[in-house]
């Protein structure tokens, strides 16, 4: 079943004389693990912004779960993104003044759908956060702690848990391993892929690091 489909996709930044991205027809199916590759400046992050509705294409069309993103108003797009997409940022973007538990459940405050899903098997959101923490080997004693007190490895796990809570359809990750040494990179990828597999979640990850290719069953090359 197609989760994401792109038709003759191109994007040009205002004031620029050249395309920042051109992408041929592409289909990403449910449960796929897709690595988006390309040199720096080739449009990898632009592609993520297009499939997550943060940008509209200059030409062509992006459909996610059968919805034409360009047809959505900004408010509806924000809701659609919150409901169906979990995001993992390059530097994790955890909220430093919130606890581990509060960071994990944060998406549920923006999405009724994900909140309902998280509460489907748990009495409350902190219990749901604890369940994800247990699955990702986040020590229980850290749950009330500020994320600023965590190691990089622990922050990785919190970022994955926050993206996964409420079982979004798609996880989008932008260079999440770029600041990690090889051991931490491999641990991060193993955790992320195992979590996506367990829930049937589609993963789209951008990286310029060729060493992670073996983790993916599909690879797409972005050329500007």
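Q: What amino acid sequence fits the structure above?
A:
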């Amino acid at each position: 079943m197609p989760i994401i489909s792109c038709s003759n996709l191109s994007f040009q930044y205002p004031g620029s004389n050249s395309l920042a991205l051109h992408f041929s027809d592409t289909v990403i199916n449910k449960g796929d693990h897709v690595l988006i590759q390309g040199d720096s400046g080739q449009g990898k992050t632009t592609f993520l912004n297009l499939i997550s509705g943060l940008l509209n294409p200059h030409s062509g069309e992006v459909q996610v779960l059968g919805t034409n993103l360009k047809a959505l108003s900004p408010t509806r797009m924000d809701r659609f993104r919150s409901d169906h997409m979990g995001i993992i940022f390059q530097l994790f973007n955890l909220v430093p003044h919130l606890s581990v538990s509060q960071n994990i459940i944060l998406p549920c405050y923006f999405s009724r759908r994900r909140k309902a899903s998280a509460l489907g098997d748990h009495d409350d959101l902190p219990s749901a956060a604890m369940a994800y923490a247990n699955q990702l080997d986040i020590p229980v004693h850290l749950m009330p702690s500020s994320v600023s007190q965590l190691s990089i490895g622990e922050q990785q796990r919190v970022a994955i848990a926050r993206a996964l809570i409420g079982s979004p359809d798609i996880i989008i990750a932008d260079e999440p391993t770029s600041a990690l040494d090889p051991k931490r990179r491999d641990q991060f990828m193993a955790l992320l892929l195992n979590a996506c597999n367990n829930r049937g979640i589609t993963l789209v990850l951008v990286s310029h690091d060729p060493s992670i290719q073996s983790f993916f069953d599909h690879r797409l090359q972005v050329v500007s």
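Q: And what stands out in the fold?
A: The beta strands are 2-11, 21-23, 26-29, 33-37, 59-64, 67-68, 85-88, 170-174, 202-206, 218-221.
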